[in-house]
Amino acid sequence: MATLKEPLPVEKTSGGGWRPVARWAAPLAVGVAIALAPVPEGLTPNAWRYFALFAAAMVGIMTEPLPPAAVGLAGVAVAAALRLVRPSTAESASWALSGFANSTVWLIFAAYMFAMGYSKTGLGKRIALLLIRAMGKRTLGLGYAVALADLVLAPFMPSNTARSAGTIYPVLRSIPELYGSLPNDASARKIGSYLLYTALAATCITSSMFTTSVAPNLLAVSIISKTINVTISWTDWFVGFAPVGILLFAVVPLLLYIIYPPEIKESPDAPRWAGEQLRTMGPVTHKEWTLLVLVIAALSLWIGGRLYIDATLAAILVVVLMVISRVVSWDDVLGNAQAWNVLAWFATLVTLASGLAEVKFVDWLAQALAPQFAGRSVTVSIALLVGAFFFIHYLFASLTAHTSALLPVFLGVAVQIPGVSPMAWALLLSYTLGLMGILTPYATGPSPIYYGSGYIPGKDFWILGLILGVLFFAVYITIGVPWLRWLGI
Question: Is residue 407 assigned to a domain?
Fold first, then answer.
């Protein structure tokens, strides 16, 4: 497989001039072409126009004629102004702002605050130096260490945003700069790009391995029980996915090391250097201890307190305690432009995706697939139906939204296809929920944080997402389906 090359430098315009016309032309052309096409049977004109606007916004996010957050905000504003989703002005305004009430959006924001705390106190640097001292001789070893950290936490944390973005990212973010690998710079590829994308890929794999590793899995189990009266236990879920999950987990850090290689492969002197840096830093400071206690408190609430407090509320509570204890100041919170930018971006994407469900476009699309399976073999039907469920996630900015909008419809279509048990169909569809998070920069909670880190250029993110998305799906179909059949499910 060919190695991705360094992205070409982008020429900056002075004085805030217009961006290249092609960046504007592509989303406008897509939106206009869809809007002028005949409205498909079964859809309202408003639903079709909304899809045209949604498609234009997604292309705009890829080509970036404006920053992604601005593109998303423009899409929401236009849809609300034209009342494409809800009929009245007040209801349209309520819909337009609904993404800012999404819990995952604020959990992402809190994760940025955690990362800032690690940076300001020096705790992130200290932990990073400890990791380098223990495993820093080879970059590949660090990649596997990051993946293992996610795997250890996954069974106990039903939020990959809390796990990867809130716990692993703040520590991981401190490592590249110690090697001279800086964000938004040619040096990003030294080591930072590889480590951060490996962390994202790992959390997408672990998110499919356990029912408790991401909230949409638990939602899926509930929907399955109510929709087709099938009960899935924690053990059923884990055993059914184990061969796929273990294989992907073992292979992906190495695969990324080959196709998206770090420039720094080995650093035999790194452990000794890290030890010297730790001695220079001196003993752990009061603020570091305070942050460590708060982080452990957040972990405890995420793992053991989910019956009593929502993961997002727990994270926000810890951020407030960080301010009270002066780990960070309120001015630090207000001044973190990157965090507020990601909050606005992800909130608008969640809103845009919810609009597809509200105008019944998602229902129409899923139901239109049903006739495609008539007369096909079981293997082909599985590949087509599960493939559609998986790759339609390009239209979604939330695993939860995808699960709630599509899973009931796809289950209804699936159980009508003979030769596969309802339990098998339920598992075949549900297992993809974590894996599909790799597809886009907005596909799952941690994605915007890694995308916004400055280490993974947008072009690389989309290409790697497609490569790993196809790989995940191919391994899943070729190994997962025969495994479930062998189990007799």
Answer: no
